[in-house]
């Protein structure tokens, strides 16, 4: 529903993956162009993330210009950010409806830095409203 409201054609959808066993993976419709992982934030993860961030700051990181990435600056929006990343990095495969707010957001933000994209998302009314209405429909914690 969230994707439909943002103007993604119903040819594409997100589905739950219940496990990595072959019989469970066989239930996932094909083709697949992205996988979003949901996991709890633990102390071990935070330690790894902090160390990795420091390593990247010290040594730099080579990222292809074709990779779309934005920082997350909005609390409790990791799912929305993940969806945007999944769609943005597969936009050549996506079918957008006419007047898609997400397509416009991606086109507008393509030349921005990850930080600028985050700030732009903070003020992008169509996605904010859609995120808030979806958050009220189910669990967001």
From TrEMBL:
Residues 1-141 form the UCH catalytic domain. GO terms for cellular component: cytoplasm. One of its GO terms (molecular function) is cysteine-type deubiquitinase activity. The keyword Phosphoprotein applies. InterPro entries: Papain-like_cys_pep_sf, Peptidase_C12_UCH, Peptidase_C12_UCH_sf, UCH_AS. Keywords: Cytoplasm, Hydrolase, Phosphoprotein, Protease, Thiol protease, Ubl conjugation pathway. It is found in: Cytoplasm. Its EC number is 3.4.19.12. Belongs to the peptidase C12 family. Preferentially binds diubiquitin; the interaction does not hydrolyze diubiquitin but, in vitro, inhibits the hydrolyzing activity on other substrates. This is Ubiquitin carboxyl-terminal hydrolase. It comes from Merops nubicus (Northern carmine bee-eater).
């Amino acid at each position: 529903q969230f994707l439909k409201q943002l103007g993604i054609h119903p040819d594409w959808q997100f589905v739950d993956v219940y496990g990595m066993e072959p019989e469970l993976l066989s239930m996932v419709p094909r083709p697949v162009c992205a996988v979003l992982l949901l996991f709890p934030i633990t102390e071990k993860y935070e330690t790894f993330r902090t160390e990795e961030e420091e390593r990247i700051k010290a040594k730099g990181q080579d990222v292809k210009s074709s990779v779309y990435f934005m920082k997350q600056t909005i609390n409790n929006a990791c799912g929305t950010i993940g969806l945007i990343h999944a769609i943005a990095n597969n936009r050549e495969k996506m079918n957008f409806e006419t007047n898609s707010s997400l397509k416009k957001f991606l086109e507008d933000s393509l030349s921005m830095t990850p930080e600028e994209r985050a700030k732009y998302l903070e003020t992008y009314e169509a996605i904010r409203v859609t995120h808030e209405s979806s958050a009220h429909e189910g669990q967001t914690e």
